[in-house]
Sequence to fold (587 residues):
Amino acid sequence: MTVRKRMIWVLGIFLLAMFVFIIRLAYVQLIATHHITKYDIDLVQESIKQRTKKFVLHSGRGYFTDRNGQSLHMDYFPSLILFPYLKEEGWSLSKVAQILNIDTEKLITSIEHANEPFIFKDNGVRRRLSITEMNKINELKIPGVYAHFVQERTENIAPHLVGVVGENVEEVKKRYKAQVENGTLSVHTEIGVSGMERSLDPFLISQGSSELNYFVDNLGRPLFGYDVRYHAPADPYHPTEVVTTLDKDIQNYVTDALKETGLTYGGAVLLDVKTNDLISLVSLPTFNIHFPFDEGAKNHIVSSYTPGSIFKIVVAAAAIDQNITNKFDLFDCNRNLYGDQEEPRMLGSLTFQESFAQSCNYTFAKLASEMLKTDNQVLQRYAEKLGLVDKVGWNGDIYRLENIAHFPEEEEGTIIVSEEDIGNPYAIAQTAIGQKNVRVTPLAVANMLATIARGGEKRQVRSATKIKYENGTTVVEFPTQQLGDGNQISTYTAMRLQELLRSVVKQKKGTANSKLSNSPYLVAGKTGTAEKGKNKEKLSHWFAGYFPADKPKYVLVIVDLDHHSGNYKTLKAYQKIVKYLYEFDQN
Fold:
């Protein structure tokens, strides 16, 4: 091949490559500007983003407040926003300093090393402006100095209930396919990952953020002068507010009380007896919102565990209702659980009530065995009557959304008594004292105690009362709801159970007498110790009760899932919380 032909071939290849390049460039700039590559990248939008800097005032996502209107995981108040180009132009900040009653040098120093817009902090704390200060600052019209309401994420004090949010492109497409396709929702919008953030996500999803926008050149300097534009969706309804039933002050105290007593693995749940509303929910270890799937992510309050002697309440209810024992019957509580040896804890001959107060295993194993001979579902049935084994959290349909749950991670309880168990005295005995295949959640145990305290009436546990629009109108209400089909224990049985629960604290030999008999509120309840692990080498300890015992107002259940014999952290924490709530009610 001659040199000339080679040059022609090279030139042809070059021209072909240039032609392909021009076609590709034309395709990118003229045809596929909004949908380039398989990721549907919008080049126009990305170009604008590259030249646009923004300061987000509010993400637009709904938020959670307690029953008194206090935010549970964020704050939103007037703040001073300063832009970095102030240091280059030498604007006078003395008038701003005068309005805030601070030294001008503080403002100047704060700007010196700034590369992005920032919120002014006084001594390391974000300065909260009054409405008057906000208006006065804005009246100065100093470029780069703005006063606005700004959202600030704070510590989430109820992370296991509220949950966390995160970015998940595929999940956004799945949940909100229509909104993504019509362009009203970005695939990068944060969505609920757990808790109520997830279950109520359709009502919380952002409809657009409120922000301050300005344009910069390739060196980061402002274009078009110092024009900063406020952008927000023209929507008076968002962000929404979920009004929970929690009390922020009580929630904080319960958390601190558990930690002070050394409880590190377990939690506490506090209900209002009258309404069955959740007042506090604490699960330990604490949720790490930056790592939402680590050990602390598990909500122990809605997870099922072996309850130990707490389950004797169910056996007692069935025995009372079926009239198989009376207050004069005596049980040999020197015998062990199976009745074939002596019990290490020699309790002597005890009545039914004394057996309950002192937690005699033999009594309840004997009663359960008698009942199960004729009805192998008797324990299951009475557990259901007491509201113990079903999911007890609020659940209902809202508009076209079905099965909206206040506790989306809640597990069901189990009480398995198989045909093989009926002829096995060991299996029956273990089931009677809440071991073997018995599993219940602390939330369900709290619900059972509330049911007894109300005289037998079962209700779902509610953790929110309503969702409000930004303008204050209500979009959704969560009414109180009955639990199950209305099948419940009789008023008489509830009254007898109340007597038994009171005896646990009132009687001198009751298992909670030493710790709770001097509480400012009279307490009624039940202790429970459960063996865990393959070789039963681990223990958990419960105390479930209500107070005041004579006029029930609160139900409190505390569980220590890492119990060590002799160290009753549950009772120590219970004592502190009862005292706090007594003083709380006096104010």
